[in-house]
Design goal:
Pathway: Amino-acid biosynthesis; D-alanine biosynthesis; D-alanine from L-alanine: step 1/1. This protein has eleven helices and 20 strands. Helix 6 runs parallel beside helix 7 and helix 7 packs across helix 8.
């Protein structure tokens, strides 16, 4: 490891979060752990192993390459790819025993050019329904009627039929209720068509924690596994963040009143101030939008001032500090704590965007 800036991941927190979530549901409800985007920045295989120890029955990722990476690292749990893959990639996915998301009959029509219906092994698929998020999935009865005949093929197993809520973290549940009712209507389409489905699922982290009655046959847990969830709306659940991010002051200097720092003279000192430089920047995933957030030095808060550079940023320190002093970017120091949720509020996003944005050139250190 050649950088003082490093992410520290407490694996036990991921496992314990999953164990707590597992206890919220009957054994008949399966737990699918979502480890896409390198495990939301925590490490994909490491998160997958902790999820399995915590009771996960299956995994989900966004793309084929993420699933193949998990298989290459020895992960054997069933894996669902949440984004439809190209039809010509189906043989590769089958070789690694991966489950596929499908949304249309046209995909099946094209897929048959690459897979023989008489194949000995069965292809496991999950059908995605768009009930209001507007991302991917079938939306109309006509689309279902076009898809359904393909699902009756002898070499196809419909392992799941699922949707995703757009507003599960919002206090107002009006739109979520609308999506729930739409999904119930779509399930009737499935049942009337005679297509056998192994699992119906609609609840991601926020929906599963807030509305356990929506668990159906399976829940998909991603953000909550890493300690990101709407705490205010589910006060009875206590999950712990697993990630911290730390660095050190590489240079400390005193700025006189009226002096500038940063590109475009983006910060001007109002008085005599102490400034520390920290080796993390937007190429590490610390975007310029995080100017004005805080970090911890010597147990006190220090504000990011001036435009964040590609490789470094500057802090207005609470006073003179030694070069080499530890900087807590995410995590606790003394009685203070910086969370991904706090940082996310600053730029109007969700906590998992903060962790998922940490670039590969930031080393990860795994601890129990």
């Amino acid at each position: 490891m050649f950088r003082v800036t490093r992410a520290e991941v407490r694996l036990g927190k991921i496992r314990d979060n999953m164990k707590q979530i597992r206890c919220l549901f009957p054994d008949t409800v399966k737990l699918m752990a979502v480890v896409k985007a390198d495990g939301y920045g925590h490490g994909d295989a490491e998160a997958a192993r902790m999820a399995e120890q915590g009771g996960a029955d299956a995994l989900a990722v966004a793309y084929l390459n993420e699933a193949l990476r998990l298989r290459a690292q020895g992960i054997t749990l069933p894996i669902l790819i949440l984004t439809p893959i190209e039809p010509q990639e189906v043989p590769l996915a089958e070789e690694h025993e991966l489950m596929l998301t499908v949304t249309s009959g046209e995909w099946f029509r094209e897929m048959r050019r690459y897979r023989n219906a008489s194949a000995a092994d069965k292809l496991k698929v999950h059908v995605k329904a768009d009930t209001g998020l507007g991302r991917i999935g079938l939306r109309s009865k006509e689309e279902w009627d076009e898809l359904a005949p393909w699902l009756h093929a002898d070499d196809i197993v419909v392992d799941g039929f699922f949707t995703h809520f757009a507003t599960a973290s919002n206090e107002d549940t009006t739109f979520l209720t609308r999506q729930r009712d739409r999904f119930a209507e779509m399930i009737e389409w499935v049942e009337h068509s005679g297509v056998a489905v192994n699992h119906y699922h609609c609840a991601g982290s926020a929906a599963a924690l807030r509305f356990p009655e929506l668990a159906m046959d399976m829940v998909r847990i991603g953000a909550a596994m890493f300690g990101f969830y709407p705490e205010r709306l589910v006060p009875s659940v206590k999950l712990e963040p697993a990630l911290s991010l730390r660095s050190r002051l590489m240079q400390v200097k005193q700025l006189r009143k009226g002096e500038y720092i940063g590109y475009d003279n983006s910060y001007r000192a109002d008085g005599d101030e102490w400034i520390g430089t920290v080796p993390i920047g937007y190429a590490d995933g610390w975007s310029q939008g995080l100017q004005g957030t805080q970090m911890l030095v010597n147990g006190k808060r220090a504000t990011v001032v001036g435009k964040i550079c590609m490789d470094q940023l500057m802090l207005r320190l609470p006073g003179p500090c030694e070069e080499g002093a530890e900087v807590t970017i995410i995590g606790s120091q003394g009685d203070e704590r910086i969370t991904c949720a706090e940082l996310a509020r600053h730029i109007g996003t969700v906590p998992q965007e903060i962790s998922a944005s940490i670039a590969p050139r930031v080393s990860k250190v795994y601890k129990e």
